[in-house]
Design a protein that fits this description.
With 139 residues, the chain is an alpha/beta fold. The protein contains 4 helices and 4 strands.
């Protein structure tokens, strides 16, 4: 059962109409950008999810602007036993095997990105130490 939906920014009437037409019974409008991770309406929506619910958005960027945030939100949705769909991005659909595959690939890419960041950070730290830069509290 599609029960919840989310949009960010000022609740666009077109977005709300699309979500209701897709079967959503409750639409949440966020006052803050999808680029922010601490959004009260999103937090409320995520707390209300129950097994079998499907959280639906009109576009993926309405939910999150970074892969890391998206995957964290999708993990929360999955732990609630709910699914996720994006109307504009039909391949992003955790209620289907193909959608789960796409998200697994996105997850692998995010993990790869994180490991590359850690490697570059470690390399930069080693170069700085070789130049005599000291880290931590002063002795």
């Amino acid at each position: 059962m599609v029960r919840e939906a989310a949009v960010d920014g000022t609740l666009a009437q077109l977005d709300a109409a699309q979500l209701h037409a897709a079967g959503c019974t409750k639409v949440y409008g966020e006052k803050q950008s999808g680029a922010k991770t601490d959004r009260p309406e999103l937090a409320k929506l995520l707390r209300r999810l129950e097994p079998g619910d499907v959280l639906m958005v009109t576009r993926l960027d309405r939910l999150a602007r970074s892969t890391r945030d998206l995957l964290n939100i999708l993990d929360t949705i999955a732990k609630a036993g709910a699914g996720f769909k994006s109307l504009a991005d039909p391949m992003i659909d955790t209620t289907s095997p193909h959608g789960k595959l796409i998200l697994a690939v996105l997850g692998a890419l995010a993990e790869f990105e994180r490991s590359m960041i850690l490697a570059r950070t470690d390399d930069g730290r080693k170069r700085a130490q070789a130049r005599g830069v000291r880290f931590g509290r002063p002795p």
